[in-house]
Amino acid sequence: MPKVRLRIRITNPFRVNFKFPDLTPYKTKAIDLLKQWFLPHRRDAMFALGKATILLAALWEYVWLWHTHYYVKRYPELPLSLAWAMLTVIAGITIAQAGISVGLKKRGARRRELSAESKAQLTVLLASYIAGEKDGREVTEAANNARPQDFEECVTFALIGTRGYALERIKQLPGVAKLRETWTAKSRKGGILQRRHSVERLSLLRDPATIMALEVALEDANAGVVAAAVRGLLRLPEYTERDKLLASLPTRPYLVRVLTAGEASEETRYVPPEVVEPAYQTREVCSSLANYGSPGRDLLHLMAALGRAGDAPAEALGELLAAGARGGR
Fold first, then answer.
1. Residue 89 CB neighbours (<10 A)
2. Position 23 in a domain
3. Which H/E stretch holds residue 57?
4. Are 161 and 204 in the same domain?
5. What is the model's pLDDT at position 156?
6. What is the rounded CA–CA span in Å between residue 233 and residue 218?
7. Mean of the pLDDT values across residues 89-96?
8. Could you tell me if 258 and 283 lie in one domain?
């Protein structure tokens, strides 16, 4: 008889083919959540929450000390002694805050009075120095006795309204040379407003020594800083890259072209026909210029007179007049 081989396969009925799920979407969501929590505004909120928690813990320690060392010993029959201790601490904090606030306000008022007196003295000395009636030593002594912010503000106002020989006289002051170095350093660091104000003040100097700092500001991420640098460079006759800078204006952001329209129009009247901005962006920029103050409104009038950006400048000025009639501005 032939041999017969039997093969028996015994399978495990409890065996389950388990496959791990794809965790990539969950991992991506977790990473995005962590990134959101580490955003600047969320990080600042968490920092403020931590400080508030530490402050409450410190105040609770004083509440407990009042409760155990005063109310429990002197008024053992007093109900809710812990609440009374908390009210005592709150009252003490309120009185201390009121006293500190009054002191700070008086100190601030006194500092403003001294600042106004110092600015008035510096303004008179600067006017006399520009007129040739006084030498630079008296201005330097007054600047050393005043706050640096006061001298900086007076020099800025003097630079705005002077040209020619008067401007050269101001630039000869030793304090102005120090201000130029300070503005150069501030134009490369700090917040947007600090960088923009520094670049604008460097532009007011009309000094060839500021060309390098203004060229560095052309690479700034903020359009307002770039526009201030462009205006400053175009005001300098010694700047040799003027044609290259004007040729690069059509490729720069729209706000830069709008803010430099006055200076650029004096150099060239050419506007590339292929550069067309969306209507909503044009209206948005014109609305922001209307909120910029008197310089923005003057620029809107100029744009409307030259026919730039269509009807957007006129619409922005109309909205501004309507808001003023309603008492909104």
1. 18
2. no
3. helix 40-66
4. no
5. 85
6. 10
7. 83
8. no
Alpha-carbon span 216 to 238, nearest angstrom: 17
Structure tokens that stand for 240 in this block: 């040799």
Q: What is the pLDDT of residue 268?
A: 47
Q: What pLDDT does residue 321 have? A: 65
Residue 163 dihedral angles phi and psi, to the nearest 5°: -145, 165
44/50 Cα distance (integer angstroms): 10
Please check the confidence at residue 144 and state whether its pLDDT lies above 60.
yes
- Predicted pLDDT of residue 193: 87
Does 225 lie in the same domain as 261? Answer: yes
What average pLDDT does range 262-272 have in this prediction?
53
Look at the chain and report how many structural domains it folds into. Answer: 3
Distances (CA, A) of 21 to 18, 33, 35, 295: 9, 21, 24, 61
In angstroms and rounded to an integer, the radius of gyration of the C-alpha atoms of the chain is: 34
Exposed, middle or buried, 307 (CB in 10 Å: 0-12/13-18/19+)?
exposed
Q: Per-residue pLDDT for 281 more than 70? A: no
- pLDDT at position 278: 47
Domain range for 300 is 279-329
Half-sphere exposure of 166 (CA within 13 A, CB side): 15
Show the tokens assigned to 140: 């330097």
Residue 173 is given by DSSP the state: S
From the CB of residue 20, how many other CB atoms can be counted at a distance below 10 Å?
Answer: 5
How many degrees, rounded to 5, is the angle at CA 94 between CA 91 and CA 100? 140
pTM of the full predicted structure? 0.55
Please report the pLDDT score of residue 272 as a whole number.
Answer: 41
